[in-house]
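S1.2 Input.
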Amino acid sequence: MQASPGNERKLSWNDLPALFPGFRAPKTWLPRLQKHAHLVAEAAPRVRVSAVDPADAIRRHYAESLELLRIILAERDVTAVADVGSGGGFPGLVIACVLDDCPVHLVESLQKRAKLLADLAEALGLRHVTVHALRGEEAGRGELRDGLPIVTARAVAPLHELLEYTAPLAATGGSLFFPKGSGLSEELTTAKRAMEALNCEVRAQIPMRAEINPLVSVLRLDKRGPTPERYPRRPGMPAKHPLL
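S1.3 Output.
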């Protein structure tokens, strides 16, 4: 995903409530996000989850994750979410910090990061978060298969590969939301076979607001039917032999 232009004003924590007035109880979610940032920074020597310049972390990690949530809420009712390749919790833990009553499933294949996510959720008091220390292909064959109304992923893989990690988790009639940069048109062309194979269709492309990141749009795809039995393929196959 492309970075926001370097000449933009850096965002502060105090900017976030004004940018997202539709999110209730900022006196609850803002301190959680600040604590999350502190804990991630504290864990960085042991578990690296970001290459973003710390000076731009509020915009790139927190504001963009909140903007994704704002767009999702404008498009769909949100009763449960799966975030695939959650890393340090962007956007999954950010979503959980705002939506107290929404089950959030974080799928993370790297064991150190999965352990960090579980520790973060506990430290933040997010009892509605479940961490799945699994590859996306494994999660798509497990208890989450065809079960989630909303699935998202951020900066995980090109769309033709990403769909095989994520679409099997979405329920029929559910939606997938992916932030994507300026290469989205090319990714959509390349992903035509994957979308057809995994019963997904494009519903919308929604730009993020300029003050968040004018270079990023959120792609919404809808799941038309259950996941065909052959998908997802065994771990490693989507990357080695993508559906092209």
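S1.4 Remarks. The domain at 13-240 is CATH 3.40.50.150 (Rossmann fold).
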